[in-house]
Structure formats: structure tokens, C-alpha cells
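Exercise (ungraded).
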Amino acid sequence: MTRFTVAIDGPAAAGKGTISKAVAAHFGFAHLDTGLLYRAVGAKVLAGGDPVQAAKALTPQDLDGDLRTPEVAQAASRVAVLPDVRAALVDFQRDFAARDGGAVLDGRDIGTVICPDAQVKLFVTASAEVRAERRYLELVEQHPATSRDTVLADVIARDKRDRERAEAPLKPADDAVTIDTSDMSIEDAVAAAVAQVQKAFGQT
Ligand code: DC
């Protein structure tokens, strides 16, 4: 099989990661969580580095650290507004999408900027309250002192920054199919995504 790209975009904690992994496993495609690239750059900045240099020098090993913290998420969202950081990460993402055997990339600008020719574009979303509650339940397991209000405020701040930035803002591509997971179980959301991919994949 040649190229087949699935672009999955959407705001924080909408279910993109779970859906992307499940779609990749179902079809035997490779998966890249592009948020990790921005998180790795954000982590280097928190450690005192320069964002553009960090983005240019990023290696696959940099994606292995503990990048799933709220501090790193906010730092990622802040470096993601910088056009030079975004430009430095484009080739890595496009090379990944071009591999043989199919690829799923999830992020904010995959269907709009990174892979505008993707065969499938999904925009996975949910209300801010539902997303914050999901993220809260994840975080409170590791950090019992986590506050619901702080998590909601973090989600809203990150959404605003991601949506309002000038360069590659978070928005659905014109030809994306939106999946609103607010009232869906994860199984139903995965099934909806798989069905969309199946429809396009069957035609290749
Ligand atoms: O998907 P995530 O929560 O791991 O992403 C962390 C931040 O990285 C997000 O707030 C914005 C940025 N990001 C981006 O600008 N473009 C992408 N394709 C992926 C993530």
C-alpha cells in the first residue's frame, strides 16, 4: 500500500489520542501524536532552552520524557504560537505522514496545514466542561490535590491560545468531519472514527 493519511485535529482532551491510537491499531497504520513535539520543545524551554533552537534540534529521544504534565502542556501551547518553532517541526511531521503503510497524525493543524491532502480529516471535539472533567479524572489519580477549577481554567486558557494564534490556529479543515464526543462513550467515538476511515480506505 502507498500513502494513506488520517488527520485528526481538535482541542485538548477531546479524545483525539485515544481515537488516533485505536484507528492506527485497527488499520495497522503508524501513529504520531504531534502534540508531543510541541511538549518536548515546551519542556526544553522550561529547562531554560531557546524554543527555536530546541525545535530545530529535536530528536526522537526527546519525546520519551515525562511530557504529560499540566506545566508542560501550557509551555507547549506557548511555544506553539511561534512561527519559527512550527516551521522547524513541519518536515518531521510530513515525513512521518509520507511513510508507506498508512499514518495517523493527531494535533491541531494536521488537516489544515501539515497534511492538507489527507484522505481522511476528522475534527474531534467536546465541550470544555466535559474535556476538563476527563482531564481532571486522569490527573487526580497521580496528583490527589488536583482541583477541578484549575483544570477547567487550564483547558480554557489553552483552547483560547490555540484557537486565536495567527499561525496555524486550531480550527476544522473545510473538508473535515466533526465528531463531538461530549455525549459519546469512547467506544462509540472510536467506532465513528473507524467508520469514516473505512469509507475512504475502501475506495483506495
Ligand atoms: O495535543 P497536546 O495537548 O499534547 O498539545 C500540546 C500543545 O501543543 C497544544 O496546546 C498546542 C500545541 N500543538 C499545536 O500547536 N499543533 C499541533 N499539531 C499539536 C499540538
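Further reading is listed at the end of the chapter. For now, observe: The beta strands are 5-9, 30-33, 103-107, 120-125, 177-180. The chain has one domain: 5-186.
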